[in-house]
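Lecture 7 notes: from sequence to structure.

We start with a single chain of 244 residues. Read the sequence below before looking at the structure.
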Amino acid sequence: MPPLDLHNFFLEFQDEDYVIIKFPSWFPDYSPGSDIDIFCKDAGSVARKILRLGNACVADGFEIEVTIQESESHTFIDFYSGEILNFRFDLYQKIPRYAKLRIKSTYFDSILKNRKPRGAGHARADYPLYVPDQSDDLVLRYIEYYEWRHRRPEKIRHLEYVRRAVSDNQVRQRFVERLNEFVSRIPRKELRKHTRLSAGLRKIVRRLKRAIKHSGLLPGFLIRSHLAGRAYGIFVTSIRKVLG
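Now the structure, written as tokens:
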């Protein structure tokens, strides 16, 4: 099965207001299981274009799964090869919620407004790909590190990236300005309250899973619940099989 031609997809996005977050060094030659994060003004429009092109990939053996969560502001479009995830488009229509940081909602539009083009290096046409301004790229990488640093040690790579970039004093100053303008830590008192709430929700999920398992009504029921980094609720993101 040939890999997806990511150039074909992003060529379709030229009239969309979007940015690729944490632009991957491997683009467009991804490995199976890779994903790409995209902030976009109209996630529905971007999703329709992905699916329109994706329909042609079904003939190559791909299966497509769409998951919408968080009041339709976050959409996964997954391309599967059998049971194996081949590639994911991760679309956001607003700033994600974080457990440890408070991000102003206006930051999303500011990132799109200040976006920068970069060459795609396409053999047929060097069309522009859109990425955040350098200072916003650094802020987003720092947010990713700070939120996950205790549970995902590999996120240290984002901090190391930021440290290398801010060795330039002008870059450092702009980064600090943007960070202070849009990002603040959630006070410890609130964090403790959210942690207690999250623990209670985990108990509810465990009880629900046990009840489903022993009911015998829905064998093979599969729920993926994303609690990590989501202290405010449970999002049932996907049910791939209802009857085994």
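Confidence is low (pLDDT under 50) at residues 217-244. Keep this in mind for problem set 3.
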